[in-house]
Amino acid sequence: MSDSEHPIPSDDSSWPEAGAPSSPEVASASHASVATSDEEGFQFPRALHALRRRWALGVTIGVVLGGLVGGLLWYFIPLTSVSQTLLRVRAAEQSLLSSSAARTDARDFEIYGKTQITLIRSPLVISAALRKPGISQLSMLRDEEDPVEFLQRELDVAFANESEILQIALSGEDSEEIKAINKAVTDAYLDEIVFNERTERLVRLDILKRNYREHVDQIRDKTRELLQLEEQLGSLDSELVRLKHSFAIAELTQLRNRLMRLREALSAMDTQLVVETATRDAGEYEPPEVLVEDAMMQDASYKELAMEAYRMESEYEYLMANAGAGAEEQLAQMRQFLIEARRRRDRLGEEMAPRIRQRLKLAVGSDTDLSDRQLQSLELQRQMLYRQITGARKEYEELVQHVQEMTNQDAELISRRQEINSLQEIASRMKSAIDSIELDLQRKPRVEMLQPATIVSRGDANTVLARAIGAGVLTLLFCVVGLAALDYLGNRFDGVSSLKQVSKVRLLGTLPSIDPGRRRGDTRKLQAAVHDTMNIVRTALLHNRDGKPIRVVQVTSAQGQEGKSTVASQLAISFAKAGRRTLLVDADVRNPQLHLSFGIPFDRGFCEILRGEAGIEDVVQSTPQDRLSLMTAGVCDEAALRALAQEAATELFARLSEQYNTIILDSGPVLTGAEPLMVGQHAGATVLAVRRDVSRVAKIREAVERLSSVGINVVGAVVNGTRVESRHRATPLT
């Protein structure tokens, strides 16, 4: 929408009436209403204005989106039914000896219940259900990539209110299909798990009975063999057998004691022979190095040197094994210490060795008078002892073998009896297990059917419809409220009250919405309202505070589409009607609109004068309004923009001021270019055009600050888009 177009009329009664009196009281009140700071917090009136502005658009979008959401919900929410099977899972096995069930721990029942739930949803049961005729071909399962996983996910298996009642539920659109699937899963669970346990018990009972009969036969055969063996060997309970066994053990003990005494005598004889021989040969005796080394270790000095050398050898070996790169110097030092320790030890050993050897020789003795006959006698005695030992050993071994044979016979009898006892114990346990299983098979099953697969609920079309309508209404409300919230956050200009958020700006007047389609009577009221408002603004400009009338007035806005061209043209008409020779200049060189408003051809104008391509008389055109002339914008280029900031512009406005009483400049928006700042330097006052429900407070504040920063005098604002009060005259005053 261009600046020459007009906003839609409003019915907000909170706005001041168009053409309010321009008395000093009104002006002071308007000026006093300016606030120095922004209003803070949530502002309910502004929120209502935002809702008023956006409710129509919100309803339109909300109806479309709400209908779409409701339709999608109606289409995609299926009318589901629920199939349910009820099983009773007893907390404990039923006792056959009493009317009540056996007591069980709550924790055990919880574990048992969770186990049954897991088994029902296990691949074993579900696969068995899918193998039943016609189940896998149902439409609910036919298109599933993995029917087992699908049923594991869809089946709802749980105990009802912590009771013994186990529920198996399945939801779906086709009630017959979910009923068939539920029945198949339940039957598969009963067949594969519940009834299979009974089958396993029967199989176990049959195996136990066969093994029991085999053990009974073995016990009978082995008992017969034991009786025959006792007849051959004699019973272990026979007194004669026990006496024979005792005598043999006693004789074996005596032989073992005799053999030990003979071995001790032989050992003593060997020792005596060695000693006698060594005594005779003492003059030629040379002690071994081991004895010499042991004798030297008894010396404290030598022992200390030997231990030091040993310690250094250990440290050196450890360092060799664990040394890294760069340890060569430390190894060389340790090797030198080791060599020195060994040298000291060997030097002391060489000094001590002769004395040690001499002392050992003397210790052996020097009696060499023993004769060879004595040695021969001792040798003969030794040989006799050896022959006695050999005979005693042979006799002992024979007796040991005899006792072992007696013991083996007894062990065979004991082993046979133990084997029979073991078979009898195993057979007894088998008989107990057989009795227990037969008793269990007579009990009621722990899991039994209470209610087969039944449809317990069907989908309600009214419920789905209500949900779809509710979703549509919520979407509608969301759109309306959401758009209003976005509008509220945008902080649009709501009217006079919004000027409180912009410092140093007073209200000059308000313009009603201009709608060419109004009725004839409404149009006259509209013209009267515009005439009154422009008279207020004109009076404020002619009678400013310093008493000097303002001859050059700039009309601008923060952004486009805020009605500045309307304000500029109506203000120029007001000055012309007041008898002042007025020139309206279209200084919005980037987006000129005034030639369209007045129906004048676009020709050379303001830019051509700035470039020096035409004179004032060449570009000024007359309008239908007496005493009002129009200078169009002309063709803008960089040269014209540069001239606007130079002395040529000052000279131009000086010549125009000589020819016209009032010059109205319709410049471009402040926040979209620098031209209003340059044009404003030649104006005595600047009027800011704002449009209700279009302008934004933050942008208005920014525009005022930008104009004030370059010394431009912003005398006030004219608000576009207010309502027309019925008390206005049908014919405007001239």
What labels would you give this structure?
Rossmann fold; elongated; disordered C terminus; 734 residues; eight-stranded mixed β-sheet; Bacterial polysaccharide co-polymerase-like; alpha/beta; disordered N terminus; four-stranded antiparallel β-sheet
Notes on the structure:
With 734 residues, the protein is an alpha/beta fold. Among the domains are: 44-56 and 488-722, 3-Layer(aba) Sandwich (Rossmann fold), CATH 3.40.50.300; 81-203 and 443-457, Bacterial polysaccharide co-polymerase-like, CATH 3.30.1890; 283-367. 59% of the residues lie in helices and 11% in strands. It has helices at 24-32, 44-76, 106-120, 123-130, 139-142, 147-154, 175-233, 239-280, 289-297, 300-322, 328-364, 372-441, 461-489, 520-542, 564-577, 594-597, 606-611, 616-619, 638-644, 647-659, 675-680, 697-709, and strands at 81-89, 156-159, 165-172, 447-457, 507-512, 552-557, 582-587, 620-622, 628-631, 662-667, 685-691, 714-722. An eight-stranded mixed beta sheet has the order 5-12-11-6-10-7-9-8, with helices on both faces. A four-stranded antiparallel beta sheet has the order 2-3-1-4, covered by helices on one side. Helix 7 packs across helix 12.
Describe what is shown at a glance:
The chain is α/β, with parallel strands linked by helices.
